Amino acid sequence: MHSVQPTIRRFTGDKRTERIGPLRFTVGQLAHLEKATAEHGYKGEGGFAADVVVAFITGRFTANLPLSEDRRRTHMFRAQVLRELNRIGVNVNQIARALNSDLTPPDVRDRLDELHHLLDLIAEALLEPTAPRKEQAA
After folding, report:
1. In what helix (H) or strand (E) does residue 109 lie, and over which residues does it extend?
2. Helix (H, G, I), strand (E, B) or coil at 76
3. What count of other Cβ atoms lies within 10 Å of the Cβ of residue 82?
4. pLDDT at position 67, please?
5. What pLDDT is attached to residue 27?
6. Mean pLDDT across the chain, nearest whole number?
7. Which of 124, 103, 100 lies closest to 112 in space, CA to CA?
8. CA angle 92-95-96, nearest 5°?
9. Using omega within 30 degrees of 0 as the cis cutoff, is the peptide bond preceding 106 cis?
10. How many angstroms separate the CA atoms of 116 and 125, rounded?
11. For residue 39, what pLDDT band results from cuts at 50, 70 and 90?
């Protein structure tokens, strides 16, 4: 079983040469960073900060950042819209069932088919951003 505690990055022969920054912190944030850096056995804040970022982007740990909160809100909104679309679909099915029980003009059936198709398109459009993207052939 792996420890949740991060381990100090050991030199693997791959020197970090690309820079992002400079990072800016408030005095209080810098004090917390310096304390965490020392607690985890790092010599400098830069290496510690880089390892935290790499662990985050590789999925070794997650944090409740504003970005993840935005994603949660977006997911909740989509779920709510899909529930409402489902309710509309149930109503459309009930209408279609009632209309199919009697002789109805073909125009009404065409309109219902068109409405059903539009609901399917809306549902697909709402799901697109959550579906994995297909890589285009180079």
Report:
1. helix 106-127
2. helix
3. 14
4. 59
5. 92
6. 76
7. 100
8. 85
9. no
10. 14
11. confident
Query: Can you spell out the DSSP letters for 19-50?
Result: --------HHHHHHHHHHHHHTT-S-HHHHHH
What CA–CA distance (Å, rounded) separates 83 from 87? 6
CB 88 within 8 A of CB 136: no
Place of tokens 């040469």: 17
Reading the block at residue 79, the tokens are 């779920």
Q: What is the pTM of this model?
A: 0.37
pLDDT at residue 2, rounded to an integer: 46
One-letter amino acid of 15: K
Residue type, 17: T
Residues 44/37, Cβ–Cβ less than 8 Å: yes
Summarised one tens digit per residue, pLDDT across range 40-98 is 888 888 888 888 888 888 877 766 555 566 777 888 888 888 899 889 888 888 877 87
Q: Please answer whether residues 109 and 85 qualify as being in contact, where contact means their C-beta atoms are separated by less than 8 angstroms.
A: no
